[in-house]
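Notes to self, Nucleobase:cation symporter-1, NCS1 family:
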Amino acid sequence: MAQFSAAPDSSAIPDYESGAPSGHALPAGYSERLYNEDLAPLKHQTWGAYNIFAFWMSDVHSVGGYVFAGSLFALGLTSWQVLIALLVGITIVNLLCNMIAKPSQLNGVPYPVACRATFGVLGANVPAVIRGLIAVAWYGIQTYLASSALVIVVLKFLPQLLPYADVHHHGFMGLSTIGWAGFMLLWVLQAFVFWNGMETIKKFIDFAGPAVYVVMFILAGYMVWRAGWQNIGINLGGVKYHGMEVIPVMITAISLVVSYFSGPMLNFGDFSRYGKSFRSVKRGNFWGLPVNFLAFSLVTVITTAATLPVFGELITDPVETVGRIDYPTAVILGALTFTIATIGINIVANFVSPAFDFSNVAPKLISWRAGGMLAAVASIFITPWNLFNNPAVIHYTLDVLGSFIGPLYGILIVDFFLVKRQKIVLDDLYTVSEKGAYWYHKGVNYRAVAALLPAALIAVICVMVPSLDGLANFSWFIGAGLGAVFYSVLARKLQRSA
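result:
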């Protein structure tokens, strides 16, 4: 067995940065069932704090992020109560991201490979496929939402195309002709950025996040100028709670913040692996989460609040807000910027993840690029517009899959920090030898699976059973806590029997 933290011969490790094959031979002792050049430990980790900061900017700055932040201000809380809830929630996310980032950053491996230490070298396909399926569903939905925003703006300037927006006369599989054109345009643009590799993705998110900030500040300034500062009130939902009754609402808001980031938080290792140092990752997380999210939320709520005096109604969709501006150039610039922002979040949250996850299932057959394109093609066949337009289907599909995220996180954290004491034998993540530290029983750590299933089932029940709807907003915490407890008990039994 290899020594702790002993990496393979550096000459055998591919210099992977762009995702392109390097032609290196399979390192000694590694198995083709577990290794390809995309899943290999990185030889050079080049991302600094700014790159991680830009990653979070791309993840936050989207149409969905805008609407989400505005909705928290509309809970009926006062402005300072909402800000406290936001700060507490995003600080929790910051701490959780630092924890999940560490094994991948220290060893230079993506999320599914890091999972091998906990679930076994073959059992890691369970958490990988779960995260990959969630990403595929959200990838399709985000692409559809971004394309819908683009179509709205196109029709504003080219009303002669309106007949082709009628799905009943010009449509296929539930989507209009112009809807298909917008969807496939964004699908191709995202695929183009992804296909060029991680270096291109890094450059894209380095640009996308700051670009949206510029437009957001300009939009906020314009709306304040139109409304007049004295006419803007930030208690969008009105004050509904007094005294101690406000505490449960604030706790709910905190939980919603954590749940909103639970997907990219779980597979954050796919990006932290590129960090120059763990310190750089933590600095990037600090500026990208508490600082960035607070600034984005303030700009969002001011812009949203200004829509009431300017347009006579509360508008939480930034694309609709931009669409009502009288200046065509501003409308085009704003719409394109928000489209770029949504492409950014879709790539970092829902494209890179399944690329690694599906590649992990069959490394010899599926490369990183092939895994990503597999997810992209699958996102078309699930017809996300039908999924999104059917609340019952999207509820059962995404909430059931999402209920596994919390338990997975709890199990991974307990195993790395408490069971393995932050020690991972890097070489053994890539071997099917029964002497390997992570072979377990037939390559699967059934204790991790045994902890995952009941924790996820309970989280699903909390989400699906109407009488327990008060617990639905806390399903991530419930699942993470139960997964951590169940795995701790089972791991302790394993240590006693060893």
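- The longest strand covers residues 171-172.
- Residues 143 and 187 are 7 Å apart (CA to CA).
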